[in-house]
Amino acid sequence: MTPACKHEAESELAELERLALKTLRDLLEDAKSSPSVRLRAALAVLNRAAQLARKALSPRARAIAAFLAARNPALPAPALAQRSG
Fold it and tell me: Does residue 65 form part of some domain?
């Protein structure tokens, strides 16, 4: 992929991300949205925030988070131990 194509793809993804976040915000703020839709939107935001926070964790902290998530199925588990470093 050329640098220009890569930049264009990254710009497009950034724009789609902004649109997706706006959509989630609109759903969360709209009192007419059903409770189940608002809950799913809230969980999507929280899960993404948790994934981003996990990326900033040290390897030891990621291992602890993976251990805790394995013991508690209610915790989001994706990407807990994927990143090494």
Answer: no
Distance, in Å, from the CA atom of 48 to the CA atom of 44, rounded to the nearest integer, reads 6
Assign 76 to helix, strand or coil: coil
CB 50 within 8 A of CB 68: no
d(CA 33, CA 35): 6
Mean pLDDT of 9-23: 91
Whether residue 67 is contained in a domain is answered as no
Residue 14 lies in a domain: yes
pLDDT class of 24 with cuts at 50, 70, 90: very high
Range of the domain at 44: 3-57
- pTM (two decimals): 0.56
Cα–Cα distance, 12 to 18 (Å, whole number): 10
